[in-house]
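Notes from the pairing session

We agreed to fold both candidates in a single pass and log them together. This is the raw record for the first candidate, unedited. Please don't reformat it; downstream parsing expects exactly this layout.

Candidate A
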Amino acid sequence: SKGEIILVDDKVELMRKLGKKQMMLQLQTPLEHIPPALAGYQLELASDGNELIYTFDAHGERTGIVALLKDLNDAAIAFKDLHTTQSSLEDIFVSLVKEEQ
C-alpha cells in the first residue's frame, strides 16, 4: 500500500472539523417509517424501528436538537431514552482513508 499524507492538523482541530456527533433516541413504540414532517432532519431509522439516529455538527451554531425534540413531540413520537456519541480519531482516520480510495 502507498502511504500518503492527505491531511496535517492538530488532533483537536481534526475532531472539530471532521468529527460528527449522533443522538440516538430509543423509541417507546417502533416506527415503520420516518414521518414526512421529520424529513428535514435526515434521520436514520434502525432496521427494527426502535431507534432514531440524528447526526449533527456539535460545533455548529444550531444543532437542531431543540427543534427536533419539539417536532417529535408534535408528531406524538415518544422516546424512553437517548444518548449521544462522538466520532473518535480512529473513525475520522478510517473515513479519510475510505474517501481516498
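Candidate B (folded immediately after A)
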Amino acid sequence: MFVYGVSSNIKNLRDASIEFVSDLFYRIFKEMYESIPKYDLVPETTAEKWFKEMLLQEYSKHAAEQSPLADMVMKSLGGKKISSLPQRK
C-alpha cells in the first residue's frame, strides 16, 4: 500500500501511523466525553472547552505512542521490510 506524502523511511512511517492512531483515539475519547451528561448549574467557558480539547488530544497522542495498534498500522504501511523488525516492549 502506498501512502502519498510518506516516504518509506521507518521514522516517517512510524510518525504517520502514530498520527493516524492518535486521531482514532481522539475521536473515541471525544465521543466518550460527550456521552457524559452535562448540567447547566456552572456553565462551561470557552477556555475550558479549549483546554478539554487539547487535553483529549494529548491523551490520544500518548495512548497512540504506547499502543500496539500503531505498530500494526506501521507494518501494514511498510510491508515486508518493516514486518521483520523486532517487536517493541
